[in-house]
């Protein structure tokens, strides 16, 4: 076991709590942050490279037929190994955007192709569910079960906003535990069903889920109702019968009091390592545990503790994700260190043996894949979506520019929020926003004005637009063009060159 400090090369601002790491076609991908507003990487999926104590990010292309994948933090992420001729893929459900909007969508992320320069292209498709569909949530889990030659997906737990009928001005952004229901849906037809089990009496979020064949183990988690982390461990068994599925649940006595932990798989067998997490609001769980899931059940074994650095030991919070093959990317805040430019310290934790590490290093050294993260395809200034575009197809391209992430290309979220800008006199706080128009169901209406360098966003409320006009602008499209471009009205003295109204938050 090793703990290696990492130096983020112009990318520290992209790794925030709630991010996810995915492993597709031999690459580690960062997911959960917005794309570069000045470049054609709006989906916020980046390739991650660790080498010589440095961490670099590189933009990932999407195929032309891909849908938009919003930046989602704390979603349920489930890996699908190749089966029945289908490629390896990831299912992504729910999650929370950087602007506190909670999603209920389900996406499937797969590898589309490898170019002649070995550049990875992904494909993202939104999958529709029918029947008893799980609502918007985050902090939940999703697992794959196999029974009687069939495959299904199990979704459980999480948090969401209070029901709309119960929300008040004071509790508008308050979250609650989702009801303790188990959702089961098949991947072929998208049929979803909800199941209530007496053993699952309380909601829980930020727990762990480990699946093997027809069983899923739910471990730990935090309950808002009791504000506790009870050492819970449930075994859910799913039998995919010809008619309706049969679900049964058993309470086990070997649980761990933990929430928001990181779990990484070691080897091809069902052997895992649990790292990080919290035992209470003020106490991190500093121990590591090995978890083995086999035909006999689940076993926990204590693991020799890592020699933590003082920054990790004394930090109040930490977060991270599995980088695959017994590796974890770990981050802790730079609390009380004004000399530090970055907000977080980053570490790579490896549970590989020395032989495995050497073998992996040798494999990487013989690879024909391009690992040059310093000279690559230029990207364009745009907030529009461009999938699978070639450099010569982009306007104003600069061949001397690379597609590595640079923090100078990012907007300052502390000032602008997630794609939120407005006039200087704006009194609207997007984090405590309340609907002003009945058309604003989930986020405030905004319009983009091109006046000034780079343009700026203006809230419809600040513009004193009538709701009738908002309804007229919104008919038939989610992009709302300013009618002044056709000569119908004027807002101050702004010239709108491409004005469109979007719903945000």
From TrEMBL:
Annotated Gene3D superfamilies: Kelch-type beta propeller, Rag2 PHD finger
Cellular localisation: Nucleus
Record-level Gene Ontology MF annotations: double-stranded DNA endonuclease activity; sequence-specific DNA binding; zinc ion binding
Pfam family, one: RAG2
Alphabetical list of SUPFAM superfamilies matching this protein: FYVE/PHD zinc finger (SSF57903), Galactose oxidase, central domain (SSF50965)
Comp. bias intervals (Acidic residues): 395-413
Domain Recombination activating protein 2 PHD: 417-488
Keyword Nucleotidyltransferase tagged: no
Biased composition (Polar residues): 364-379
InterPro entries: Gal_Oxase/kelch_b-propeller, Kelch-typ_b-propeller, RAG2, RAG2_PHD, Znf_FYVE_PHD
Region Disordered: start-end pairs: 354-413
Cellular-component GO terms for this entry: DNA recombinase complex; endodeoxyribonuclease complex; nucleus
UniProt KW keywords: Chromatin regulator, DNA recombination, Metal-binding, Nucleus, Zinc, Zinc-finger
Annotated residues for binding of Zn(2+): 422, 426, 449, 456, 459, 462, 482, 485
Record-level GO BP terms: chromatin organization; immunoglobulin V(D)J recombination; protein-DNA complex assembly; T cell differentiation; thymus development
Cleaved signal peptide residues: none
Main localisation: nucleus
Role according to the record: Core component of the RAG complex, a multiprotein complex that mediates the DNA cleavage phase during V(D)J recombination. V(D)J recombination assembles a diverse repertoire of immunoglobulin and T-cell receptor genes in developing B and T lymphocytes through rearrangement of different V (variable), in some cases D (diversity), and J (joining) gene segments.
Family membership noted in the UniProt record: Belongs to the RAG2 family.
Subunit structure, as described in the record: Component of the RAG complex composed of core components rag1 and rag2.
Protein name: V(D)J recombination-activating protein 2
